[in-house]
Amino acid sequence: MGKLLVVALLxxxxxxxxxxxxxxRNRLNASREVAPVSLPNCRLIKGIExxxxxxxxxxxxxxxxxxxxxxxxxxxxxPDKPGEIFLMDLNEDNPxxxxxxxxxxxxxxxxxxxxxxxxxxxxxxxxxxVVNHPHQKSTVELFKFVEDDNSLVHLKTIRHDLLTSVxxxxxxxxxxxxxxxxxxxxxxxxxxxxxFLGLNWSNVVYYSPKEVKEVAxxxxxxxxxxxxxxxxxxxxxDVLDHNVYVMEKHADWSLTHVKTLQLDTLVDNxxxxxxxxxxxxGCHPNGMKLFYYDPENLPASxxxxxxxxxxxxxxxxxxxxxxxxxxxxxxxASIYEGKLLIGTVFHRALYCDL
Length: 354
Prior knowledge:
By secondary structure, the protein is mainly beta.
């Protein structure tokens, strides 16, 4: 009887493990391949070689780009090189990426930038919020942009017990923001178990100097976050659940769920067309290739345009896709004046005509 019980328990454990493995592969879209969709006049941006994970474009066409992310479990082509913030002026005929100088006193050696967001104050001061992972922790760095000498003045470092595993951020004021925590845990082993077991413990936090609180929860991995042009709705990408959540923003900064748009890809960062309200999403068609990097089977890239997300029938268009031969692991796509700038987690950046 004892041996029978051991065999039964082993059988149950094996069945549960197989079920979890299958579910994990499904969340990563492990079998998905995409047909190529090309755009005219595309060129790789010189000087960006180790990622362009997030992009935020000011109304005047200045684009901020975070580069050099080192993230647990993901490839890095320069693991010992500090991260950087680049600037591109998209009004130029052939815009180039210029590294922004960061003021003295800031710890550049451990700079590991992730999501970014800009806020333009009433006096036209430009603030740049940067999610940072020094020594694999999570902080938010607040900078002031000085255009005259292409520099960032570091104003302060924000830490909080609710900002545990920050992925992306959207600024609400000169010192307030919403942020996504892509995992409940910050230790890599526990992060992996959280994904493997399918725990929906990820959340969204509102931060201001006066108040910090959880405003949304129940995500498998809350990733990109942004706001509608009328500032009434917050959009949240759940990368492991393949969808975009629409949340209504209230006067007390709380959020309520409006709808969920289900997609067939791993949605990373979200950018908004300020004129049309369209959502542009950098996506990973096959997350298995992203997490288990193989130079013979490269992670693909995919860009989606989502129109009329608040309607009963949003229109989703695949604008660009590549098998990794040109661009690996797309994470963001932002538009300006008929041009599309596509960033990646750890690879290059691509600039195309639409």
